[in-house]
Design a protein that fits this description.
This protein is α+β, with helices and mostly antiparallel strands. Helix content is about 35%, strand content about 30%. Helix 2 (about 115-130) runs parallel beside helix 5 (about 170-200) and helix 3 (about 145-150) runs parallel beside helix 5.
Length: about 200
């Protein structure tokens, strides 16, 4: 049995704990996903970089549901990010890309209560500005809260990629706080302008 991890290059950055719905239509990926389902094994999601191959850091994805299979072999799947890895060597012997990878985890440094509270506060303000319900962080999410918060928002892919490679939750959460603090004022202004335009600029 090959120890090589099958890779799915995409224009996304998958973070641990984040769901990823996919429509599988290319024959090579139908083959790859079919094997992953049969052998109950994960595949790796790596960001496809234009003219540069793939990113060096990726995340494994477990297939958690197959909502639909089509007569022609296509399928809809829902995967979820699990474990981060670094690509050591690419292998192109199959129709789809595979790689020898090194899995890695965080060091011992944990985020502070103040960091957690501030990050959740900013995240919830963005949700409220978008008209969504605010959320509380669960104890289960806290060790990798940064991934949960960043994965739930359509943030810049370069930023998400940098988060993926950080080996400290405290470092990641601080980066998330700084990123959200930078975008929240612009979102507030945009929402204010939208509300004013919706009311024709006049107070009701």
């Amino acid at each position: 049995m090959s120890l090589l991890l099958p890779l799915f290059p995409l224009d996304v950055v998958l973070l641990p704990g984040t769901p990823l719905p996919l429509h599988i239509f290319e024959l090579r990926y139908q083959e790859m996903i079919g094997e992953c389902l049969d052998m109950k094994k994960p595949f790796g999601v790596v960001r496809a970089k234009e003219d540069e191959g793939v990113a060096e850091i990726g995340c494994t994805a477990d297939i958690i549901a197959v909502p639909k299979k089509y007569d022609d072999g296509r399928m809809d799947i829902v995967a979820q990010g699990v474990e981060r890895f670094e690509i050591l060597e690419l292998n192109q012997e199959r129709s789809f890309l595979r790689a020898e990878v090194l899995y890695f985890r965080d060091g011992a440094e944990r985020a502070t209560g103040e960091q957690i509270a501030r990050a959740v506060e900013l995240h919830n303000e963005i949700l409220e500005l978008a008209g969504a319900e605010p959320q509380a962080a669960t104890e289960e999410q806290e060790p990798q809260l940064s991934f949960h918060l960043a994965g739930a928002l359509p943030l810049d892919l370069d930023f998400k990629q940098s988060l993926l490679g950080m080996k400290s939750e405290a470092e990641r959460l601080q980066a998330v706080i700084q990123y959200l603090e930078a975008i929240v004022p612009n979102l507030r202004r945009a929402m204010h302008v939208r509300r004013k335009a919706g009311g024709n600029g006049h107070a009701v």
